[in-house]
Amino acid sequence: MADGRRKWLRREEHVFGALEISHYRPKERPNSVRIVHPKNDEEAWWPLFDETGSTLFPELMAELNEIKQTTVSGLVFRRDHSHRRSPTPLPWITAKQDLRYLRGVVKKIVHAADLREELSFTSFRHGGFTEGVDSDLTDAELRAAGRHRSSRQLPTYAKRTRKQLISGTKKRREEKYKDSRFVGIAMTRLSE
Questions:
Q1: What ranges do the domains of the chain cover?
Q2: Region (Disordered): which ranges (predicted)?
Q3: pLDDT tens per residue, range 73-105
């Protein structure tokens, strides 16, 4: 599910507390997923296929298709083990909207996989924004994906990267030498 958090720029409480199986490829929109944003009560219908019919999220869709075959209704992501109080798997999020248990499980997985200890579900959302900036998405495209009304919040999520610095430097140099008779020389030196 990290893929969905990263690609759809979702907060963990939205993924585990608002994404219902009925939101994924419903009959009236079989090529989309409904992403609900409880923070601002907005919804976004994300396309699952591009204009040629190619899947946009192949790994995630394979997982969601499998879940949809066995889950009739309710939240998509539930605990994968039984609970003493329930014969069916419980949601990861509690009735009080608490995800501490899930965060503890994630930390155990991070440790067992020998990943950076600071890795968290929040880092997937922020990483998705940074990935978007590195992919040259416009502010408008990032705001649409994250359902932000203003671009003022984007720097909070999209971190600065080496790729952005290099790209910006090249663009500035290209602009500087655009009308110069030394464009060829400058561009050759830049690529060295």
A1: 2-115
A2: 145-173
A3: 888 777 777 777 787 777 777 777 777 887 888
